[in-house]
Write a sequence for this structure.
């Protein structure tokens, strides 16, 4: 009887040992969530296709964090910056909302992502949101609005950048002038 039990234990150990690589590949949902939280909290973690393949719901996870006012500004900022990897209507809507958030860092990042991902098609609502922040109470947000505007193309954008370049805010003027110079170089 004792030898049968020992044989069963050995067989079980062997079976579990062979199955362990397969078991290791399957993570418990809580582990997947913890991994995502670690990724979001790590300052030098960059989003890659491999990472997003690990979290097929990454866009929704990032949207949830970016919009959650109970989260830290840092985590919301990181999530907002990573939303630049997604060019969807849900991201566009969230970014438009975030341009009026109480946290200036978040407003600035939302503007930059909006400009980079959604302004190039001449989206009037995106342009209006960016232009509204050109008079933001926070100087860094105003400068980020100019940077966001610089992602756009066309005579309306260039006219607005020219007006800012001639304006009385030296920081905004410098950014607008640099953007206009880069646009002129690109067309040559």
């Amino acid at each position: 009887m004792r030898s049968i039990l020992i044989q069963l234990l050995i067989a079980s150990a062997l079976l579990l040992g062979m199955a362990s690589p397969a078991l290791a590949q399957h993570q418990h949902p809580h582990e997947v969530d913890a991994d995502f939280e670690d990724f979001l909290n790590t300052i030098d973690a960059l989003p890659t296709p491999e990472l997003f393949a690990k979290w097929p719901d990454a866009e929704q996870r990032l949207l949830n964090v970016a919009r959650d006012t109970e989260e830290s500004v840092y985590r919301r900022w990181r999530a907002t910056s990573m939303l630049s990897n997604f060019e969807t209507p849900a991201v566009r809507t969230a970014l438009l909302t975030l341009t009026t958030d109480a946290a200036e860092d978040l407003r600035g990042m939302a503007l930059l992502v909006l400009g980079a991902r959604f302004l190039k098609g001449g989206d009037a609502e995106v342009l209006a949101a960016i232009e509204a922040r050109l008079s933001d109470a926070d100087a860094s947000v105003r400068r980020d609005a100019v940077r966001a505007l610089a992602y756009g193309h066309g005579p309306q954008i260039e006219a607005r950048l020219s007006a800012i370049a001639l304006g009385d805010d030296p920081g905004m003027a410098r950014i607008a002038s640099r953007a206009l110079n880069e646009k002129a170089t690109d067309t040559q």
